[in-house]
Amino acid sequence: MRPRHRPLLASVVALLSLGSCSSSVSSVTGSVDGGGDAEVSLPDVPAPTDAPLSCASEATRSAVITYTGPDEVAWDCRSARPTPGAPSMVLTRTAAVISALDDATGATLSLDFCSPAADCIPRRGTLRIEAPGFSLRAAPAGLRTGQFVQIRSRATWSWGCTMQVEVSNAPTWDGAVNMVRQGSVLLAAAASGEGTALPEAPFEVTRRSIGCVMPGTDCGGGRPEVFALSFQGHCRDCLRDPDPVVVAQGATGTLQIDELSYAARNLRSFNSGACDDYWNYSWTVRERGP
Q1: Residue 188, CA atoms < 13 Å, CB-side half-sphere
Q2: Distance CA 265, CA 58 (A)
């Protein structure tokens, strides 16, 4: 189900390239519809005075997240829409990596959801994340065959559907030891239509106002405006958390979580001002390696 008011959305988004901030914004569609919950309000974080950000940006993109379980069961925005008003649940699943493949448009994990403690044939599923520059196989932090991973995901429906996913290393699975990598560390995360991370993630994402308010109407979600995204990593064994990294649309910054570094890319972060249009946020996070 696609969001309503597309003609209004197209006309308002066009204004984003005409304002004083000279931002370039284009609407990109994919196999996963953008959507958002009109009841959710994203907090604004004041821009630091010693690090002004430019309103100019690359044309926006949006990640496409496709997640399928055993027997081709869809666990993404293609799955059955829940009862209206039902809360969106974060689903946690563990799997073993069969293969990881990077290509020109993103990365694909082939997964086996059969527990090592169970007597079953491989229960195959797939996680694919399409986004510029995104990888899961590339060294030195690439995923390998046999590695145990924990995948948290959430699909949220409103006028359309938004999707979030987080992949972490699982040191054990039902008593079996991960022979590829130890430690429960974040490996990658992505969001389509959401400007925040999943609850209990080891990092936070918030939008940051950089003074790029555009001409146009406010239909309840704010005036047309281009934002940056602030990525705040957390540290379990430090005196304080690392400093946040602020990333403009189309750019990539380095996020610190504990002692590890991650590439944080802002694919899309703007408000069009159109009615029922709350999903113009998309980003990816990927471990850079030691």
Answers
A1: 25
A2: 12
- Can you read off the two tokens belonging to residue 144? 């390998």
* Contact partners, residue 140, CB within 8 Å, separation at least 6: 289, 290
- Quick: pLDDT tens for 157-169: 987 899 999 999 9
In sequence order, what are the residues at sequence separation of 6 or more whose Cβ sits closer than 8 angstroms to the Cβ of residue 168? 149, 150, 151, 152, 184, 185, 186, 187
Q: Which residue has the tokens 């990596």?
A: 97
Q: Decide if 192 contacts 162 (C-beta within 8 A).
A: yes
Q: What is the pLDDT of residues 223-240, one digit of tens each?
A: 889 999 999 999 888 888
What is the model's pLDDT at position 277?
81
Q: What are phi and psi of 47, to 5 degrees?
A: -75, 140
| Tokens (6 digits) for 212 | 């790029």
Using CA atoms, how far residue 82 sits from 77, 85, 88, 155, 210, in Å, is: 11, 8, 8, 10, 37
Q: What is the average pLDDT across 73-92?
A: 88
Residue pLDDT, tens place only, 138-188: 977 899 999 999 999 999 998 789 999 999 999 999 999 999 999 999 999
CA 40 to CA 7: how far, in whole Å?
Answer: 23
ω into residue 140 within 30 of 0, thus cis?
yes
CA distance 57 to 238: 34
> What does DSSP say about strands 203-213 and 44-45: parallel, antiparallel, or unpaired?
parallel
